[in-house]
Amino acid sequence: MSCWMSGCPALSMCRGVAALPIACLERAKDLKTRLGILLHKPELGHRTGSSSKLQLGSRRRDSSRDVLEWRESFDQLLKSKSGVNAFHTFLKTEFSEENLDFWLACEDFKKTRSKTKLASKANRIFEEFVQSEAPREVNIDHETREITRKNLSGATSACFNEAQAKTRTLMEKDSYPRFLKSASYQDMTKQAASRGTSKRSHT
């Protein structure tokens, strides 16, 4: 049915939506996306598992042992590139990937040798993750935030140490145990165990 007739409710609705500010429309779109993800979490988890399995499948030489070692300690997980990728995928389902991204940014920051680059990188990391109302603000206390702010005045490779340690502890005590219990990780461990059994039966 055409909505170009005068008094048509659909036409009134179209005009009403068009009159809304762009910012409102963008927020509504973002909210719709997030709600869609939440409503389809089981499917999302299934896709995550499938994605992780494909990544692991490309590195069969040590992936089985690797996957099983992730549950030994959080350190073991962080030492593994595929482990970090799988954990990052899981954190995305909880909308908390900024914690791991901040930790990784700090690790990269520590490798910086140029003092000029050190200062610019420090400011960029602080503005993105640490300062109040940052775009990807990590969950740290006010005191740690202020200590980190003061460290920027004479940026060294250690200026994010305290904030990074707090974020790491939060992930280890909160997100990491949930990751180990997640359907995607349980699926990975079953596959890793079956591959290990298959290898032993062929030797």
UniProtKB/TrEMBL annotation:
Main location: membrane
Domain RGS: 73-189
Membrane topology listed for this record: Lipid-anchor
SMART domains: RGS
UniProt keyword terms in alphabetical order: GTPase activation, Lipoprotein, Membrane, Palmitate, Phosphoprotein, Signal, Signal transduction inhibitor
GO cellular component, one term: membrane
Stored Gene3D superfamilies: 1.10.196.10, Regulator of G-protein Signalling 4, domain 2 (1.10.167.10)
GO MF annotation, one: GTPase activator activity
Subcellular compartments: Membrane
Signal peptide range: 1-19
UniProt GO BP: negative regulation of signal transduction
Domain of life of the native organism: Eukaryota
Function: Regulates G protein-coupled receptor signaling cascades. Inhibits signal transduction by increasing the GTPase activity of G protein alpha subunits, thereby driving them into their inactive GDP-bound form. Plays an important role in the phototransduction cascade by regulating the lifetime and effective concentration of activated transducin alpha. May regulate extra and intracellular mitogenic signals.
Protein name: Regulator of G-protein signaling 16
Annotated source species: Elachura formosa (spotted wren-babbler)
Species classification: Eukaryota, Metazoa, Chordata, Craniata, Vertebrata
